[in-house]
Amino acid sequence: MVEYRIDRHSGVATYVQIVQQTKQALRLGVLQAGDKLPTAREVVEATAINPNTVLKAYRELERDGLVEARRGVGTFVRRGLNTTPADSPLRAELDAWAVRAREAALDRDDVAALFTAVLDEHFAVPDPNGLTDRHSRTDRPDGPARHSRTDMHDRHDLNPGDPS
User: Fold this and answer.
1) Is residue 8 in a domain?
2) Residue 162 — φ and ψ, nearest 5°?
């Protein structure tokens, strides 16, 4: 069974955290088709959040076709998302990397920033103009790599003495 951990200081809505954690459990195979999610009451007792927040998260998961509510019985997983099992070699490599990061005295925010930067670099979705997002660059088939205007503006703001 999944146990939700709510970070009240993350800036992410509580119901979104529940949705994200449920999807993560589905991707890792922790939750599989037929598994029962914790009841709203169980989540409330474990996390001290409003029951309506839990129900909102479960409704969103239901809209996504991932779970189904059975009146009087509970909420059950309809299908999994397990594309990467928890025991995959990639997970082991990532675990080893996290150990090295901790040994290098990186804190959680540093690790999250590094990981997010790598994700953005390798999984960014290009827009029709050939740019990926405001913080990344892309090699265009018709010429050299370009930066977006907002990216250049951000650099200028970070280096006020730099005339570029």
Assistant:
1) no
2) -85, 120
Show Cβ contacts of residue 19 under 8 Å, excluding neighbours closer than 6 positions: 57, 60, 61
User: Structurally, how many domains does the chain consist of?
Assistant: 3
Beta bridge partners of 75: 69
Q: Which of 25-34, 52-61, 78-87 has the highest mean pLDDT?
A: 52-61
d(CA 110, CA 97): 13
Residue 41 backbone dihedrals phi, psi, to 5 degrees:
-60, -45
Distance (Å, rounded) from C-alpha 127 to C-alpha 11? Answer: 27
18 and 65 together in one domain: yes
Total residue count of the chain as it appears in this document: 164
Strands 67-70 and 137-138: unpaired
Q: Which two tokens stand for residue 77?
A: 């997983």
Q: Judge whether 111 and 101 are in contact, CB under 8 Å.
A: yes
Residue 62 lies in a domain: yes
Report the pLDDT value the prediction gives residue 90, as an integer from 0 to 100.
81
Are the beta carbons of 25 and 31 closer than 8 angstroms? yes
- What range does the domain containing 38 cover? 14-77
pLDDT (tens digit per residue) in 32-73: 999 999 999 999 999 999 999 999 999 999 999 999 999 999
Instruction: Provide the pLDDT for residue 131.
Output: 54
